[in-house]
DNA-binding transcriptional MerR regulator
Amino acid sequence: MDKVIEIVAFDQEWITLIKMAKKLGISLEEVRQFLNSASTKSYV
C-alpha cells in the first residue's frame, strides 16, 4: 500500500487574523460571515 503525503500550507496572516479575532471574542463563524458579506459587496 502506497502512503500519501499531503502538504498543507497556511498563510501566516490568516492565522494571525483568526487568533486576533479569537482574543477579541469574535467567533470563527462571525469572521466567516463578515468575509462572505464583504466579498459580495462592490466597492466602487
